Amino acid sequence: MDRRTTIKWVLAASATWPLLRAGHARAYSIPTPVGYGSDPDLSRTYLPGELWPLTLTATERQLAATLSDLIIPADERSPSASAAGVVDFIDEWISAPYPDCLIDRGIVLAGLVWLDEESARRAGSNFLGLERAMQTAICDDLCDATRAATSLREPAHFFARYRDLTAGGFYSTPIGRTDLQYIGNVPRTTFDGPPLALLESLGLA
Predict the structure, then answer these.
(1) Neighbouring C-alpha atoms within 13 Å toward the C-beta of 166
(2) Which of 15, 43, 107, 179 has a CA-to-CA distance to 155 between 20 and 30 Å?
(3) How are the residues of the chain apportioned to helix, strand and coil, as percentages rounded to the nearest 5?
(4) Prediction pTM value
(5) How far is 84 from 79, CA to CA, in rounded Å?
(6) Which of 109, 81, 105 is nearest to 22 (CA)?
């Protein structure tokens, strides 16, 4: 690995140090990338973990699913975030051997540990063992970093990033696009050209 790549990894890892110093992370291995690899074969389907080892344990995936569903719950228009495959997306994202993903890996892992520790402090249980109202109360304390208590600023940073990943994963799926009532990205068999009124306004008709 050359010096430039090494510096990128060091800078990426340093972004997670505030949470890591607080003891809010488990040990995990960092894959060593060789460049950015070749383009994927878009004609085939890759299985989870086929491109690189996945990060989340079974328990962490449960916790990730619960948190995702608090952010985007099921409603009359669409299923919940986890039902749309958001946890798979997040696990793939934080497992990828690239600098931005490495930063998010540290943030997400540390944040999930913090949720369990905060749950134990408040209610004597891990996050999964809490009633939904208590889970929501913890998230409410994190949902706006500008209003969060000073002691919660780093966890609020985690929550903001996790919320972004959840929304990005959800709204990039067919389910999410339907929820947005997005009508683009659909092939058409004909093209009628621009409206006549528009062409006239541009002096082209």
Answers:
(1) 21
(2) 179
(3) 55, 0, 45
(4) 0.75
(5) 7
(6) 109
Query: Tokens 């799926």 belong to which residue?
Result: 173
Q: Which of these, 101, 106, 86, 105, lies nearest to 175 by C-alpha position?
A: 86
- How far apart, in Å, are the Cα atoms of 89 and each of 38, 84, 199? 20, 10, 43
The answer to whether 51 touches 57, Cβ cutoff 8 Å, is no
Residue 57: CB partners within 8 Å, gap ≥ 6? none
Please give the single-letter amino acid code of residue 44: R
Distances (CA, A) of 167 to 49, 82, 97, 172: 22, 11, 22, 8
pLDDT tens, residue by residue, 115-148? 999 999 999 999 999 999 999 999 999 999 888 8
pLDDT digits (tens, 9 = 90+) for 73-85: 999 989 999 999 9
